[in-house]
Each structure stands twice: as C-alpha cells, then as structure tokens.
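Issue 218. Parser rejects a valid record. Input:
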Amino acid sequence: MAELTSPQRDIYSVSRLNREIRTLLETGFPAIWLEGELSNLARPASGHLYFSLKDEAAQVRCAMFRNRNLLLKFRPENGLQVMVRARVSLYEARGDYQLIVEHMEESGDGALRRAFDELKVKLEAAGLFAATHKQPLPRFPQRIGVITSPSGAAIRDIVTTLRRRFPGLPVVIYPVPVQGENAAPAIAAALRTAARRDECDVLILARGGGSLEDLWPFNEEVVARAIYDCPIPVVSGVGHEVDVTIADFAADVRAPTPTAAAELVSPSQYEWQQSFAQLAGRLTRQLQQQLRHREQQLNWLARRLPHPRRYLQSVAQRLDELEIRRTQALRYQLQQRQSQLNTLRERLQQHNPRHALQRHDAHCRQLATRLQHTMHRDLQDMNRRLQYLARSLETVSPLATLSRGYAIVTTEAEDKVITDVNQITLQGRIRGRLHRGRFTAVVDGIEDEKS
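Output the parser choked on:
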C-alpha cells in the first residue's frame, strides 16, 4: 500500500506575517481623522514624534515623521487635545499596530476648520462660487456702500483711502456688528437692505484682522447666500492678507485687506487727471491732423476738377465706343447662332427616322425568309422522325404478332391471359382474340407436353 503524502504546508515567518498584515492594513483603510488627547510624547534626536492618542476608554500608538512636523503651527504637549489625519499601519519590528500621522491641529480650531471645509464644499457644489456668476466692478462708481462696524479700524482705513484717491466720491455706510452670534444675520440683512435701496454701484464688506473664531460670522452660510443673491457687485476685504473666509469665495472680488478693497472700487483722481490730459492732447493732435488732411484733399480735388465741356465730350465719346462694341457683339452673336443652327440641322438629318425604318424593314423581311426556311426544314425532319418511330412501334406491337396467325387466349370469368394448360379445365369456356375479331370456345381436351 502506497504511503499517503500530506499536502504541502505554506509556513509563514514572523517577518512575512507582519509584512502582509501591514500591507493589508495600509490598503484596507483610507486616511482617517481622529480626535484625542496627546500622551507619552517623545522627541528623539531624529526629529520624529512618537506619542499615544487616547480618549476615556482606549489609546493608540502614533508616529509623525520629521518632514510632517515642520508644517505644525503649534508645539505638541502631553495633555493637549488635538485632531489628526493619519493612515493605519503596523510597525513590523515589534508587530505593533500604529497610526502614521500626516497632519495635526489643535482641536478647538480644528472643529471650526472642519465646519469651514464642509461649508465650502457644500456651497461650491451649489454653485455659489462659480466664476460665471461673478459681476465686474464698475469703472467709475457714482456711490460706494460699505458694510462694516462703524467703530472699527476697517471703516477708518476705507474712508481715508477713498478720500485720498477720489475725495468727491459719495460713501454710504451700512453699520453692522462684525463679531459675535448676531453678526452674521445683521450682515446678511445689511446686504439685502443695500440691494433693496439700490443707491450704490458697488459694496465693500470689510472688517479688521482676528482669529478664525473672530472672523467666523463671515464664514456663515447665511452671509454667503446673501452675497450670492445681491445684484450689486460685492468686494470682500475681511482680515489680513493671509485670512480667507467663505465670504471671499462668494464675493465678486476678493481684496486682501479693507484698504485694498477701497483701492479696488475707487478710481484714482491723479490717474484720471493724467488720463484726461493725455486724451485732450491726443484729441487736439488728431483734430489738427484731420484739418491738414482735409485741406490737402481740397487742394488736390481743386486741381483735378475738369471743365464740364471736356467731361461731356469724354462721356459722348465713351457712349459712341459702347454703341460700336454693342453692334459688333450682336453681329458676332448672330453669326454664332447661325453656325450652331446649321450644325444642329445636319445632325438632325443624320438622325432622320426614315433611314432607320428602311433598315429595320429590310432586316425584318430577311428574318421572315429565314424563319420560313427554318420551319420547313424542321417540319420535314419531324415527319421523317415520326415515320421512323411508327415503324419501330409497329415492329414491337402485339397486333403485328396476331397478324401472323397467333391468338391471345384468356379465361372467360377473370379475363386473365392463359399461358399454361393447368389454368383451364375440361368443358371450361375460354376467350380468344385474333388479328381480326374475337371468339369463345369450350375446351374439349387438354394435352400436357410432359405427359
């Protein structure tokens, strides 16, 4: 009996097991966000960070490498509440499950930042940031509206800039709070009021710098939708140059500061004065050039103007020339038409149907003669064939045999041909057919050739 062989075993090493588990974890989980408290923070000389992220019931080991640490805007410390974006992985040397952190932020600002990102994605999908909806700024506004706090530094910077650039430009201020829970509804209401009153050509929405929490009224959905619905172009000048709000995306134009917003919407009196002076100079030069050009044209036309008699003589000569050319053209056309007529007449004679009919008549008579000869020959051939077949048929006909003295004998009852004496009986009646006529007889005797 043959020895049974066991199936081949796939034996893992520890290294292979950890490597495949690491691959499974890294490919099976996408990048995730976690929030928790920092603990067991270690900063070795390599510059990497190793720590645990914990909540009330559990903790997980984390590693954040040096190239990611350089992007941190704060110094991590034990006990600090943070939010991280990380990938799930495995440290193969010890078989420890861990997170590879790619981004870390403090939990307070992180919540606001998450809300900011979520609202941005939502409003962008709804089309509130679409470039096709953006309105151009008027080149020379008749009146500028400013929506901001009447007691803040932003309104002073805006008014100072507008006075410097174009002192005579009217400004309408729509006072609103720019910080706190009531700020966002007030800003949205001011935008609707400005749209309803329709007294300004452009609006500036502004406030000074501050933290993300301070600027949060400008990140509210109600403000973004009010900017989107406003029929008047809106310029946002919120915070400093590095600050970005939802209002900046919804506005028709974003300015880095309130002062920059005032410069964008207001024309510069010095630039306009220089432009007017340049335009006046160009207009004067063009008028002088046009006058010189018209004077030259007048002199040139005066020298070229002919006497009316010479003009009439030229016209009369031109008419005579045209008359001669018309007569020659008509004569040439008549000759051409006559030549074409003669050519067509000759072609018509060549295609006279009488000649064709004569040719067809001769051809038909020739065909009729050939048909008669052919039919006569075929009839003779068929007659000879018929006579030959008749003689052949007569040769094999049983009637020809009867003419030589033979007879066909049949029984009287069944009318069957008798070929054997055993088919008849003594005193039985039989029938016979001769070459000419039939007969009935009674058998008087039977003689068998075997007896």
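Fixed in the parser; the record now loads. The two ends are 92 Å apart (CA to CA).
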